[in-house]
Amino acid sequence: MGHIQITPSILNADFADLGAEVARIGSADWVHVDVMDNHFVPNLTFGPTMVEALARSSDLPLDAHLMIEDPDRWAPGYAEAGARSVTFHVEAATAPVRLAREIRAQGARASMALRPATPIEPYADLLPELDMVLVMTVEPGFGGQKFLDLCLPKIRRTRELIARHGGDIWLQVDGGVSLETIERCAEAGADVFVAGSAVYSADDPDAMVAALRERAGSAARSAAGGE
Ligand code: DX5
Ligand code: ZN
User: Which atom of ligand 1 is nearest to the CA of 65?
Assistant: First the structure.
């Protein structure tokens, strides 16, 4: 398993002041940018121009999560706009292998997301094409939803498939991740944690990033049989 990374989502931050909001999470590993198109999900957020502006305004790398139709057409443009990791939903992709290769060709990490009801098994052979798998732990579309425990077995199975494949592939969870739920995710094998409302509803978002990191780290160590 890779090292623990905390990736706050700015979906629940103040959209009128995003530069300042990102500056409040200086110890984060990435900034998670939720791109929604009002078609794949019933909500509308940012496009590539916003990603470009965010990339210019912060030293933190951007993790673009594309909840959009036709990622085959649009996803490489987010790498071009400066996202260092680009996640497409496999349910929306026509040619995920070609798409992952195009994202990598733009110099970004290629990542594939699964909605809660989408199994990992049909996509096991795609793992060598990917740098990360995102297992959604809520139905995508909104921040502040309740964590779905029914996704935990899939996190475990994805971790097993990654181990079998042998590559250095990160396993991200997104949706309802908080101090209360992050341990379950880490024990199941996740190593990259998106947290939106947990971070941005905290009085001190950066202290929450540290607390989440600590809790995930200790859960991962005890699951691995350490302290
Ligand atoms: C949901 C988004 C998430 C969301 C997470 O569709 O993909 O990234 O911002 O927010 P919380 O942590 O509040 O569930
Ligand atoms: Zn997201």
Answer: 7
At 166 the pLDDT is 83
Q: Rounded distance, CA 177 to CA 17, Å? A: 24
Q: Where does the pLDDT of residue 227 fall: very low under 50, low under 70, confident under 90, or very high at 90 and above?
A: low
Query: Quick one: pLDDT at residue 85?
Result: 98
Q: Find out whether the beta carbon of 197 lies less than 6 Å from any atom of ligand 1.
A: yes
Does ligand 1 lie within 6 Å of residue 140's CB atom? Answer: yes
Nearest to 7 by CA among 84, 91, 75: 84
Alpha helices (H) along 152-195: 152-165, 182-188
Which residues make beta-bridge pairs with 112? 88, 133
pLDDT digits (tens, 9 = 90+) for 77-124: 999 999 999 999 999 999 999 999 999 999 999 999 999 999 999 999
Give the distance (Å) from ligand 2 centre to CA of residue 227: 32
Looking at the annotation, which residues are catalytic?
34, 174
Task: Measure the CA–CA gap between 176 and 181, rounded to whole angstroms.
Answer: 7
Structural domains in the chain plus CATH codes = 5-226 (3.20.20.70)
User: Would you say residue 225 has pLDDT above 90?
Assistant: no
Q: Is 212 in the pocket of ligand 1 (CB under 6 A)?
A: no
